[in-house]
Amino acid sequence: MRATGSNRIRTANQGTAMKTSKIRWLVTMASLVVALGAGGAAQAQKKVVVYTSNDSTLNDLVFGAFKKETGIEVEPVAAGSGVVMRRLQAEKARPLGDIIWGVSRSLLQTNKALFEPYASKNKAATPAEYRDPDDLWIGNNLHLLVILQNTKLVPADQGPKSWADLLDPKWKGKIAFTDPANSGSAYATVTLLVDLWGGGDAGWKKVGELFKNLKVLNRSSLVFQGVGNGEYPLGISLEYAGPMWAAGGAPVKVVYPADGTTASMEGVAVVKGGPDPEQARAFVDYINAKAVREMILKATFRRPTRSDVDLAKLPGDMPPMSAVKIAKYDEEGWTEQRTKTLERIKDVIQESR
User: Fold this and answer.
1) pTM summary value
2) Cα 275 to Cα 279: distance, rounded to the nearest angstrom
3) Domain residues of the chain, as ranges?
């Protein structure tokens, strides 16, 4: 039967409607795919690049917990503090990192032109002396220079009580110490003692006497390992190493020198012009949160800069800062003279042998 004109028109209209419907469906599906792809890309971009000078134990602990709480992936770039800072300087025109973490106050202060100001949510709990007045960096933890004592080799009540006690000839070859050329804390120890013992040539003369009693090692870890394992009766190290080894069962005691010590601060800063500033600010807030600082202390015995953490309720038997004698120390001045001073320390070490 031949189709009438009206039937042909109706059939054509139906075909057109079906094509239009199919096109709309395809457009809708394409839009959905694009939206899903964009969402996936956004999710993939939820990361923060952290330049860190902390050890792998602390990095793994914090980065894993940060991702679990925030969903933000951390891409770490781990190296010594001088190395990561030089990298930031080289990249300042086009920064690749978002955060620098675990570097000293002197390095943060002298490189603050590389940082973006951010007032952390935890600013009020951090004493003013441990944060930049313009919010370019904020301190996280403090390292106190201490004497470690193996109480199996030297009974607890028969060890040194001060830096001056280490000058006694009876300790010759029994005190482990890191080469200051390889350790910022060892450099701080030597320069602190120069000032503490009168400064100038008088201070350097006593430091020379001390080096005659020291066993100079290449790495900081060899010092606290040596004391913990009983290879050396004494060691000059950082505070956290004592409770860390004691928690593992080693007979290690921390001696806070009666003639004074110094607290070396480490902190965090947001990199100016970094690719993910929002995630960077989230990391700064996270790393100084009270619960996070308590978690870090329990796992690694890092003393927090926060003033509201009750050390008496946490492991490590760390005394409050009010109970520790802090000596005057020109950290910035000695940092500026570092190259020249290291040459002098090298000469002192050679003369002591």
Assistant:
1) 0.81
2) 9
3) 47-142+264-320, 144-263+322-351
